[in-house]
């Protein structure tokens, strides 16, 4: 294939309207793909063009977009992911999330880069994408069922075990605002409540099977990168293979940044009980991977009665370990594995779930919630039984779970009595398990992320990347010396800005950020797949463009700089540990945000790119969107 | 050598004070080189740190800095250049210029990256840099002599024909404000009048001889790029080899953008007489090159009596052909070659020389200058004899030549009677031979160039780069489609901003922009030489940093957005030719400049980077320089 023939992307976008059951195909040109790429930026293009500000995220006007990137499905580790986006029912603003597994590569093999789901079905349905054949099928018999069962049943009725399924669980059906979508029952598009959006559309699942080879412009260039990874991962990713994403728990605890008891503490006495190495030695029964990846960072765990944890739901990731563990004050790894299983079976984001439970625990301990409110549960930090119960009643919207299913921001409002102080959320989305007091640039990341609190839009560990691979990337950005994780100077803001743009690019590519790739590898992957002659400069601009689209989306919904805040608690110092008495200055943070806005070419009051910045990002058409604010917050 | 050992640069900067004859050495660290690189950025660092605003550019407080880049002297085509910088006697602001030849690589081989010349000698001197031995030697016997003679005499007295010499001619001694400095009698640091600065310091020449191998981190990576060039230049640079830099004259004429008669016209009836191909067929006797370059774009020409053009002074480049030819209305190639020889023998910038003569010709034709003023010369467009005489009397500062030696801005003020209208200059520097009415983005380039009117700070031909190599670079910037050369939309401003930053990087590298390299080649050259793992993103920031330093330097001198203008004439449409009736709208240009400032992160009134932009460029120390303006223009 010549350089002129596109490769990497399929060139076809599937649009399905569930209200009128219409199915259509769009075929954007090469320029479109090079500009919007896939994932976040492509989703941003469509959401900004097609959604009116002020629509109900759980109404038929919202759209749900699954978008793989131009290197998704390429035969190389890290290329197995897809993005999903919609207006978020948690934030009433921008929402996007990414997940791996095998579904995204299968989507590409079926000949599609992106699926746009519109409208709302009258009855439960699922989508069956069998190469070029697309069918809207009845899902009444699947409604209410857990993900494992649904996967099996769809594969059975389609008569093909190789069918890959993205689906919601009962939590999504019940519009839990932080319901997730799962690929292959274990890989979650966790954040922003896309599962609720899918549920509101009565769409249970998207089943995909493809038999088309993905065109590649220069397969040998792709092969070189894949080989480099195979040759090096055993050294570079040894910890991930051995102990999974929770390998770092002891290190975080040592630094005093293991989120504990609803961000009241930064160290957890039971940290070793929930460490990745401990999982390896106890409940681990196998390792698992995503498409084309030899690292096998995913876990399979099994626990007997009374927990009955089934390996099909995978083992808990770091976020889950911390959210259902230290954050809820619990050190029972089996209980965490069980909580993880309920989340994956019912389709709940483990981060918001654990965070919401911890919020309720603190309210309970402070007397804001009583046993009457909890239905008799002794909802104290460290009560593993209570944690497991809470996960279930959130998924089922029972009792207090029904209130928490609205997310901590809305729940706090309903609970009253000052509960809002203990809701660890930004813009309505719960904080993930990364402590900004010990890596303060992350605080900027939390505040400015268009998704609300989120760790996948700001490369959370950069501030500790003193040596090795990540610093190579930072150095190639022109930052020669590591900055203190406690530094909030303009130099840190600059580093964070670059890193945030790069992370946004990775969410467009949609590449796994755990891969030990350098910039040159990703440029080679993109060029090898597409035949383009791109540069890291252009790719950084793709990321910046994605962020710009999302910020304009939020500005239209009434968001301004006033909403770029972090919870007050994070301005308080810890009473003990290595970060004792060290706190983020509120004025310092304010100043850093102002510096960020100006550095990024954003209007410092609206916190949105200026017209000139939009034009610089080849987003001239977006300029007029700046005037479309319908909601003044 | 390992990646930790620096390569590419020598790590040594030579500082010579001619007032007290002190010589010292500075050895910046690796971070410094990666941040300031060489050429424009490195010069900017020193000029901004060490010059007080308001100093006399021709006084002892000015400094003259010769700075090679981290890939200068690397065994690859394009790597034979050096930058020179000082406060410009033309603009009373920032000045930098670049030249090739063999002197720069010799400087590196002698173990030096940069020479900073300070103070003023009591009597004429020259500098003898013989590897680590540095000597200030008497040059009284050389003062007043032409460059060819000086070169021979220095080589003779040093007893080494391989000594390379950068020198001024008599014009520099006489402080002609657009005097140049020449490497090897033919390669000129032409713009901004550095020759006058060197003259003001009584420094006739810098002779260099080196015997040290330049350390390279990865010679094989450098070798790959050198080989690629050797394998491809015969196709990619065929025109340059065959006919030199003036190969494009017929094409420019066809497009109506061959600067003619002081920008009164865009087409010249005698264009074929001055075309590169015509030179090839007539007066060409040989081709010449710069260090390590096989392209041989330099010319050797010979003309017998009465012209007596000596091949040692080289043949005229495009700029010279147009400036002394069409711009003065002349089609006599032999006369142009003679004018070129006088410029190189006396050390005059051919662009400002030709431009000044054309200015005087127009004044003469309009009756502003009389035969009395010209000393009897019939100073009309097309008078080749007059042109040659004028070159000589400018160099010698005789009669009208003495007035023109001040540059057109100052000359117009002295002449009065509305002469300023015909001075084709910006910020005091004369326009080069590129017509913005047919490539309007160049107009922005002219207006914002910190050097005043200049084509080496904005990649003048980009707007016609519809196909082939240059578009690959533009595409890798994220610009997928060529823009009309007449477009001044924000999209064009964006392209121009990227191109300007890249061109500034090339002036830091200091790489020849005629090489058909892609971005990846340059990244590989830098990494191969230095052992860094840099990226084009970082290199673009180096360029942006260089421009920022220069703009802050100008802001300190009182320059603001009000000075970012182009001559009024360029807003008038041509009466004929392909651009007939097409003009640049003045309001459109104003708007484009405002867009540029905002896109670039510049304060739109002072036209200088904001504090936040400086911080983003790792120039936090420069922020306070913004408050040091001493001159309000």
Mean pLDDT of chain A: 95
- Taken as a percent bin, the fraction of beta residues of chain A is 5-15%
* Estimated helix fraction of chain A: 25-40%
Spatial arrangement of strands, main beta sheet of chain A: 2-1-6-3-4-5
CATH superfamily of the largest domain in chain A: Aldehyde ferredoxin oxidoreductase, N-terminal domain
Largest interface in this structure:
A-B, 42 and 42 residues
Largest sheet of chain A: 6 strands, mixed
**Structural class, from helix and strand content of chain A?**
alpha+beta
User: Oligomeric state of the chains?
Assistant: homodimer
CATH architecture label of the largest domain in chain A:
4-Layer Sandwich
Count of DSSP strands of chain A: 18
Can you count the helices of chain A? 24
Basic shape of chain A:
globular
Radius of gyration of chain A from CA coordinates: 22 Å
Q: Count the domains of chain A.
A: 3
């Amino acid at each position: 294939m010549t350089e002129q023939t596109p490769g990497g992307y399929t060139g076809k976008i599937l649009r399905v309207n569930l209200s009128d059951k219409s199915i259509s195909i769009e075929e954007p040109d090469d320029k479109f793909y090079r500009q919007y790429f896939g994932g976040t930026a492509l989703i941003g293009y469509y959401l900004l063009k097609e959604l009116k500000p002020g629509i109900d995220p759980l109404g038929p006007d919202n759209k749900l977009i699954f978008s793989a990137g131009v290197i998704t499905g390429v035969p190389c580790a890290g290329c197995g992911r897809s993005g999903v986006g919609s207006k978020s029912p948690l934030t009433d603003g921008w929402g996007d999330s990414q997940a791996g597994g095998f579904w995204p590569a299968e989507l590409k093999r079926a000949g599609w880069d992106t699926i746009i789901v519109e409208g709302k079905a009258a009855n439960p349905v699922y989508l069956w994408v069998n190469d070029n054949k697309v069918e809207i099928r009845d899902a009444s018999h699947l409604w209410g069922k857990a993900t494992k069962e649904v996967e099996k049943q769809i594969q059975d009725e389609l008569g093909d075990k190789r069918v890959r399924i993205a689906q919601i669980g009962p939590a999504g059906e019940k519009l839990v605002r932080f319901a997730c979508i799962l690929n292959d029952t274990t890989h979650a598009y966790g954040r922003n409540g896309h599962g609720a959006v899918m549920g509101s559309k009565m769409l249970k699942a998207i089943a995909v099977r493809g038999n088309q080879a993905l065109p590649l412009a220069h397969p040998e260039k792709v092969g070189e990168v894949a080989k480099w990874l195979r040759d090096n991962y055993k050294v570079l990713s040894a910890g991930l293979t051995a102990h999974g994403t929770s390998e770092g728990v002891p290190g975080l605890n040592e630094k005093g940044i293991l989120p504990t008891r609803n961000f009241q503490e930064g160290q957890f006495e039971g940290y070793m009980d929930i460490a990745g190495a401990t999982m390896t030695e106890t409940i681990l029964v196998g390792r698992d991977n995503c498409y084309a990846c030899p690292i096998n960072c995913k876990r399979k765990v099994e626990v007997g009665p009374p927990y009955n944890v089934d390996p099909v739901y995978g083992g808990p990731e770091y976020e889950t370990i911390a959210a259902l563990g230290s954050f809820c004050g619990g050190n029972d790894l089996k209980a965490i594995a069980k909580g993880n299983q309920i989340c994956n079976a019912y389709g709940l984001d483990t981060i918001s779930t654990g965070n919401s439970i911890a919020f309720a625990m603190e309210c309970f301990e402070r007397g804001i919630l009583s046993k009457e409110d909890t239905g008799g549960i002794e909802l104290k930090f460290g009560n593993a039984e209570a944690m497991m119960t809470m996960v279930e009643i959130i998924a089922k919207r029972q009792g207090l779970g029904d209130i928490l299913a609205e997310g901590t921001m809305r729940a706090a409002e309903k609970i009253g009595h000052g509960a809002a102080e203990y809701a660890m959320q930004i813009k309505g989305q719960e904080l993930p398990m990364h402590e900004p007091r010990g890596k303060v640039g992350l605080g900027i990341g939390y505040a400015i992320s268009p998704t609300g609190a989120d760790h996948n839009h700001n490369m959370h560990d950069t501030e500790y990347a003193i040596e090795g691979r990540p610093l190579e990337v930072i150095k190639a950005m022109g930052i020669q010396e590591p900055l203190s994780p406690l530094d909030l100077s303009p130099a840190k803001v600059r580093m964070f800005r670059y890193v945030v743009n790069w992370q946004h690019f990775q969410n467009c590519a949609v590449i796994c950020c755990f891969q030990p790739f350098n910039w040159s590898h990703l440029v080679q992957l993109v060029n090898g797949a597409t035949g383009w002659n791109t540069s890291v400069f252009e790719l950084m601009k793709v990321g910046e463009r994605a962020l710009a689209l999302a910020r304009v989306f939020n500005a239209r919904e009434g968001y301004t700089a006033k909403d770029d805040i972090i919870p007050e608690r994070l301005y308080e110092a810890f009473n003990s540990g290595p970060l004792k008495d060290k706190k983020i200055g509120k004025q310092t943070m304010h100043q850093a945000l102002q510096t960020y806005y100006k550095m990024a070419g954003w209007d410092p009051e609206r916190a949105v790119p200026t017209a000139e910045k939009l034009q610089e990002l080849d987003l001239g058409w977006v300029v007029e969107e700046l005037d479309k604010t319908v909601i003044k917050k």
